[in-house]
Amino acid sequence: MSKRMINETRRLPQGNTRSKVRAGMTNQYRGGVTRKGGVTSYPTNGSRTAGREQLGFVKLENGKEINVHPDSLIKRRGTGNTIKAEPDQPETMADHTHTYKDESESVPFGKEESKQPTESRIRSGIESGTGMQTSQSMLSSMLEGSEDEENRKQENMKKEKMKKKGLSEAEKNALVDIELTETETMTLLFIPGIVCSDQDEESLKATKDYKELLKFKVGADSYNNTGSQTLNLNQKVKDETCEEMVKMRIENEQVNNYEIEEEIRKEVEDKGAEFARIYEKSIDDIMNDRLDEAKGLIDSEELVSHISIYSQMNNTTSQPTGGRSVKGKQKTKSKAGTTSQGKSSKNRVSGKEGEGTTKSIVRESDTKSGLSDKLSSSSATQNYTAIQSKTSGFPDSLMPSKMEFIEDDAMLQSSSMLKAIKIVERLLTQTKYHKEHVLYTDYPQVELPKMDEKKNDQDENSGGITSFGLGAVQNVDSNSNKSDSNSDSDYKDEKDPIRLKPLFTFECDFTKDMNITCMDFNKANPDLLAVAYGEYDMNKIEKKNKGLVAFWTLKNPNFPEKMIKTENSVTALAFSTASPNLIAVGDSAGGILIYDCQNEEEDILPVAQASSGKKASSKKKESSFDKLTVPIAESREIDEKHTDIIWEIKWVQKPSKGEVLVSVSGDGRVIEWSIKKGLEYNDLMQLKRQATSVQKEANVAPAGIDDERKPGMTFINTGGLSLDFPAGQSANYFAATEDGTINRCSVSYSERSLDTYTGHTGPVYKVRCSPFWANDCQIFATCSYDWTVRIWNHKEPIGKQEKLICRHQYLQEQVNDIEWSPDTSSVFALVADDGRVEIWDLAINNLEPKLTYFDKINKKTKSNVPKTCVRWSRQSPVLVTGNVQGVVHVYRTNGLDHVQVSHADQVERLLESIKKEDYTDESKDSKRGGADGK
Amino acid sequence: MSEVDERIKRIEQHKGVKGIMIVNDQNQFVKCTIPEGPEAIKYGIKLREITNQARDLVRSLDSTNDLTFLRITCTKYEMMIAPDKDYYLIVIQIPNDE
User: Where is the Roadblock/LAMTOR2 domain (chain B) (predicted)?
Assistant: First the structure.
């Protein structure tokens, strides 16, 4: 047994030493002592506290013993203070330590070890050591009992000390070394964590088993598939399992999408930089080659143009990344440079621009060298862009100092670009004409009073907008210009003066100096105005026979939304009501053409497409300006088409046939066209010359239809100039002739006209039925070459139908066009050949126009450009006029605003104003001496 | 002359239009009617950047949405940018310039 104990003790120091070594706390001195194993080597010779205690211990407990085994001495030395430790406990502890040590040798428990506080380790080490040493020393002393000189000396020393009875001064003051050594780590409790992965077989099996179990339970009554809250057991600390550490850097930065994009772009830029370098290299090569040549000439222009482009990049050009590949590239570059050199010199001779040659070098080198990876596919232009892209995404400080241009025709011509441009154009217009737009649409605006003031000022200053009041007329002298301004200033206080304020002029290069022949507002989009351009004069037609239809909107007064080019002058046009996208055009050659204004051909055309779908699909429309627009239907192939200028076209809604087109031409025929199956015609009327000539008619009074029936008269055809259907009617219509007569005709009776109205002494240019047509109010107006506008009432007995002659005494030009106001029954507007616009309100004054207006060239001078056309806007308080120079003027009318009244009221108003005229007409007759032959 | 060219010309002739620029993603000018120089570059690049950010905003609010037009009205100018995938059409207008 004793042997075992000794072994134990021997082993223990070993373990201790080892643990010390491991802990890195081995004391050299202590080690030395251990090796020597002798007390003699003690430097202080028992003067140390420990030594003294040890001695005391020896004396107290082992006083009798003389011989102490060196081993035990060693042990004893450091264990003086744990004398009471029982032998059993140290033993087990030692055992434990030992076993633990074995474990630690096989399994590294670094963590456990390091976790344990050093202090406790020291203590436990001491304890275990002490216990063992104590028991061992007792045993050894008991067993051996031999004497030793050294021990004797010790005894002597002890005795001396005893004599002294206390510590000597030297002893008290002596320095004491206390050694703390680390001993074997001891684990008191160790429960390793159980970690298993999801893919672990056991767990998988458990899961599987559980599922199997569930399958059996599904049908059972007690089975209920619900979620439940299970008790949360205390969670065990789990061992960490960690993947390989990835080094990450944390930077406090927010990243937006575009920043990411920029990062990506930078990569492209790097590529660009590489290209730039290659590029420079190629230039250098050219330079070198040239210099090497005996008579080498350097085309400086050729190079400078490029060097300047890339010089700015020199500073920022990034370093090459892959040396080898770059080298290879450079090599090929130089090769390419030399090969292209001859070429470039040739080019130089031929005066080709340097840039082109250098570009070609790059392209050549590209194809030849077959630049690795992505670069190989890039063309020369791509190179170019890549180089230039270097400058993108830089902050201000690095803003490129030079603009760089590329040519990208494909992109320029793309449809999206066109769309963008269209948007921009409209917006530009919107910004520019916002005020006018507001006025146009009659939108109530906050600044209105202010603007009115401004307008008043303008009017006063310029004296431009002429406003005739009731009394003004009497003051007007022959010197009208002056008196105009006078009257304007005199009567500016007059309530509600009618004024015209010019808003826009629709004109562009295409329409310049083209005669406006007709205008029409679209029925669906009241802002869309179609304007026909053409020439009436046959001589001029020959010179430029191209006709034009322009579609203007207020969205852009500077350029039409769309244009239709025709072979012949356009003389008439009309929008369809039933299908507003269709426009009928009559030209100077007698052709009727129907166009679809929609751009998209796949859109279904309500009327025309169904009928002439074949035609429409076969003929692709071209939107290009230079080409003629192909109509969806035309009358060219029809033999019986008109042979003369078509003067007017009307769409008429027929109860049975749907919408038909009625045209009147200079050849005197009135034809009804059906577009259901292409263009089908149906002669409605052949206008006949009246029995009496115009001159005769003027002399013989009263002129009536009776004259027409005179036997023996030669029936000669006459040209029709205008026709109009009363609103809402399709059976009867009025046709004006160049004889100065107006015929009322029926669509179902083509032999002769129902009624003929005579009175005009010149060709009747326009006939217009009042928009407030009713059974008891069948009033229409005509305008004529004879300077007059006449109002007729169909209901009156024959001979008395001419109700009113509206002729201003200063109106000494033919009246080209007349149009009733759509809002007020008694108001109409006319335009004359001297460029005047007159607005009449019969209810207020049927003798004089409410307003006579001239366009102004500048503040003082009036424009006398003949106006040919006048239209009221259906929705807005706007009047448009067209002149012979291809300019459409858009005016805002002021002072015509009135409350909405019923149709009957309107009729009454008109009839009232006409009635009043009976009286004035007589006075007028007396004044004029029966000029109109009544 | 194509329709685009014609329209650009027309816009150019528009009263108060200071300039038209077409810039692509790489800050290259496809077209520029402003006299070459730092001002033109500033307009081109800065407006392109703000348009990018505006588009970023629009798309972050609703990813199915996209910016079609950007108009900046300031005391002196109106700046209109019509962005597309590949380019930015920029027009500077001075509205009160008669």
Answer: 4-93
Using the beta-carbon criterion (under 8 Å), do A432 and B14 form an inter-chain contact? yes
Residue B8 domain-assigned (yes or no): yes
Cβ neighbours, 10 Å, residue B54: 16
Mean pLDDT, rounded, for A818-842: 84
Write down the number of H helices and E strands in chain A. 26, 28
Classify residue A125 by burial, with Cβ atoms within 10 Å: 0-12, 13-18, 19+.
Answer: buried
- Mean pLDDT score of chain A: 64
Q: What is the pTM of this model?
A: 0.51
Contacts of B2 in chain A (CB under 8 A): 412-413
pLDDT at A242: 66
Residue linked to tokens 């047994």? A1
Would the CB atoms of A421 and B4 count as touching at under 8 Å?
A: yes
**Is A258–B28 a contact, with Cβ atoms under 8 angstroms apart?**
no
Residue B98, domain member (yes or no): no
Of the candidates A797, A790, A889, A794, the residue with the CA atom closest to the CA atom of residue A836: A889
Contacts of B11 in chain A (CB under 8 A): 421, 424-425, 428
Q: How many CB pairs under 8 A join A and B?
A: 125
Whether B22 is in a domain gets the answer: yes
How many domains, in total, are found in chain B? 1
| A229 confidence band (pLDDT: 50, 70, 90) | low
Give the gap in angstroms from C-alpha A445 to the nearest C-alpha of chain B.
20
- The answer to whether A76 touches A57, Cβ cutoff 8 Å, is yes
Answer whether B56 sits within 8 Å of A256, measured CB to CB. Answer: yes
User: Which CATH number characterizes residue B60's domain?
Assistant: 3.30.450.30
Q: Does B62 touch chain A (CB under 8 A)?
A: no
Answer yes or no: do B41 and A403 touch at CB < 8 A.
Answer: yes
Q: Is the peptide bond prior to A797 cis by the omega test (within 30 degrees of 0)?
A: no
Q: Which domain holds residue B33?
A: 3-93
CB of A421 closer than 8 Å to CB of A549: no
Q: Can you tell me the mean pLDDT for A260-279?
A: 81
pLDDT tens across A355-395, in order?
443 444 444 444 444 433 333 343 343 444 444 444 444 44
Taking phi first (over 0 means left), then psi (-120 to 50 degrees means alpha), and beta for anything else, what does residue A456 get? alpha
pLDDT mean over A561-577: 82
Cα separation, A74 vs A91, whole angstroms: 18
Measured at the alpha carbon of residue A261, what is the angle toward residues B52 and A373, in degrees to the nearest 5?
A: 135
Residue B65 within a domain? yes
User: Per-residue b/e over A142-162, b at no fewer than 16 CB within 10 Å?
Assistant: eeeeeeeebbeebbeebeebe
A770-810 pLDDT tens trace: 888 877 778 888 888 888 888 888 777 666 666 666 666 66
Tokens of A828: 């109409």
